[in-house]
Amino acid sequence: MKPGRSRKDRPKGAKSFARGGKSGSNKRVERSAVARPEKRDNHRDERSDARKGFRKPVKVNDREIKREDRRGDRPEKRFDRRGSTQDAVAGKNSVVEALRAKIPAKELVIAIKVEMDEKISEAIRLAKNADLPIKEIPRRALDDLTGFSNHQGIALVIKPFNYTEFSKLIASAKKPMMLIGLDSITDPHNLGAVVRSAAAFGADGVVIPERRNAAMTGSAWKASAGAAARMPISQVTNLVRSIEDAKKAGCFVVGLDAQGDVELAKMNLASESIYIIVGSEGKGLSRLVREKCDLVVSIPMQSSVESLNASVATAIVMYQVSAERGK
């Protein structure tokens, strides 16, 4: 458009542009207004694709870059990913029960703009009574912290458990001692139940390996019903090595397995210091652990039942030992 020419003076309809400014040139390029709706439709499709999460790739120097790489000039506040390695109890009921059980916690975390109800209000009240910090974070950050999205907008971050060194556990045990070792028990509820039974039947400590075994998480704390605060628990790098150290301290090592050589009723070790090793419900004792045991016992059951839960089997053996020692 020439300078000084108003918009209303433009010719309507199809527009013609001639090269060299001559209107009579044979080479003409026509642009019709009919093509405009198609262009708008393309924009509309792009907007609909954007809502669905599709983005066209962007290339810089023939290199396609991702969407995240295009945000360098726009700072974004993100939650510290290290929080995902923390142990946390999530869910309204679980958090309230954990606070009631006085599980050692670091802070109470609540999602921003979470809907306040009776459970969340009670959790906040219990946290304030326990002098726990209360933090509000975005829901996405809470997803990262708990590892899943079904947290109901609330989580309780648990303190790392204070394990006892195995050498100190043996040194502080009474004589004759009774130690419980767990071999490949991956369910934290089983671990918590074993700790609870160990405290009930007078065991001197529980030993767990670092790998391929449950640790003292918030779920294990909850299942122990507070017994974890009174029972020494040792986490060792090698369960076989702990068996060798226990033998040097005068312990008789007893393995508990469904395929045991001796029935529990025939085990007469009331006067001995014993180290009871419990295998998993499905696989039983591992090969190396079984070879290191002085005796492998089994609990007689009816043929219709294949095996017992690890925590139940451990409680039966500890009751047998404590009953023999009480005579």
Structural write-up:
- This protein is α/β, with parallel strands linked by helices and 327 residues long.
- Mean pLDDT is 78; it is low at 15-25 and 63-84.
- The protein has helices spanning 35-52, 92-100, 118-129, 139-146, 166-172, 188-200, 218-224, 239-248, 287-292, 310-325; strands spanning 15-18, 28-31, 58-60, 63-65, 88-90, 105-111, 134-137, 154-158, 178-182, 205-209, 233-236, 251-256, 262-263, 273-278, 295-298.
- The protein folds into 2 domains: 81-158, 2-Layer Sandwich (60s Ribosomal Protein L30, Chain: A), CATH 3.30.1330; 166-325, SPOUT methyltransferase, trefoil knot domain (Alpha/beta knot, 3-Layer(aba) Sandwich), CATH 3.40.1280.
- It is elongated.
- Helices cover 32% and strands 20% of the residues.
- The longest helix is centred in the N-terminal third of the chain and has 18 residues, at 35-52.
- Helix 3 (118-129) links the parallel strand 6 (105-111) and strand 7.
- Residues 88-164 form the RNA 2-O ribose methyltransferase substrate binding domain.
- Keywords: Methyltransferase, Transferase.
- It comes from Candidatus Nanopelagicus hibericus.
- It holds the Pfam family SpoU_sub_bind.
- Residues 1-90 are annotated as: Disordered.
